[in-house]
Amino acid sequence: MQTVHISKMTGKLQGLHSISTNTLTNPFCIKQNSADNGGICTLCYSVSMLSTFRKSAAPALQRNSDLLARELLTDRQVPFINASIFRFSAHGELINEIHLQNLIKIAELNEGCTFALWTKRKDIVNKVLARQNKPANLILIFSNSVIDKVINKKPLHFDKTFNNVSKHHEGQNCTGQRCIDCRICYTHGGTDTIIEAFK
Predict the structure, then answer these.
(1) pLDDT in 10s for each residue of the chain, 199 residues
(2) Lesser CB count within 10 Å: N end or C end of the chain?
(3) CA nearest neighbour of 65 among 4, 10, 13, 123
(4) Structural domain total, the chain
(5) How many CA atoms, within 13 angstroms, populate the side-chain half-sphere of residue 180?
């Protein structure tokens, strides 16, 4: 039986775990990364890492891509998450509707944990959530692809927006502290517009 790979995070995500997929083989990510629009995806940290010093992580993330996007997980395939907060897609982006349905199932079967998912794929979110409810323990964060154009209004179904800005831009509230200490993105209510200076 194939199982979902859970990654131990580093850097500002130290102390958290994540279920991620392979950015390098995701058609959406490939297109966005090569776009000539100056968007944040052209500066993708995941593409850079998985192409160089984190190459060894790509096979496990590819197994997740294949498993999560192919068919719905059985209950036995859903991992038990023994944590108060958990990140979906620290690497990669939603691949298709089945991928999101599987993440929702993981959240539903781990109701004691709060999950956060960053995504630009409003199209997938809207299609899936037109058919089923979003679990209360899943926080959806719309990842704005445009640098220095902060989105305050949340798209339908989303709980928060995440925005990348230049380092001198005002209003930054994601300032480099560890996510496990901050938890703005993992808390319902409070700050709904997250602003971080890109590196």
Answers:
(1) 789 999 999 999 999 999 999 999 999 999 999 988 889 998 888 888 888 988 889 999 999 999 999 999 999 999 999 999 999 999 999 999 999 999 999 999 999 999 999 999 999 999 999 999 999 999 999 999 999 999 999 999 999 999 999 988 889 999 878 999 999 999 998 899 999 998 7
(2) N
(3) 4
(4) 1
(5) 14
Residue type, 81: I
The residue assigned the tokens 């997740």 is 64
Q: Is residue 27 part of a domain?
A: yes
- Residue numbers of the domain that contains 18: 7-146
Q: Say if 22 falls within a structural domain.
A: yes
What tokens does 62 get? 């590819």
Q: Which positions ≥6 away from 138 have C-beta within 8 Å?
A: 103, 104, 107, 114, 115, 116, 117
